[in-house]
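Page 47, continued from p. 46.
Same chain as before, 69 aa.
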Amino acid sequence: MLLDDRLARREARRAGLQIIGVAAIIGMAEQRGLIPSARDVFNALLQTDFRIGAQVIQSVLDSLVTPRG
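Result:
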């Protein structure tokens, strides 16, 4: 389930649902070759009223550089 609203995420967790936010989706899209650059997508989002923390963005970008194992 894709959720970014804090209350909705809390309720989804309470219901036992697995959730994922937009930032993670963007990272996954780059990893899978669906978009050329997560950084470009984040920059475009930041030009709108979409709210996302700098630490969240950096965490996703770092995960794209450092292979997980």
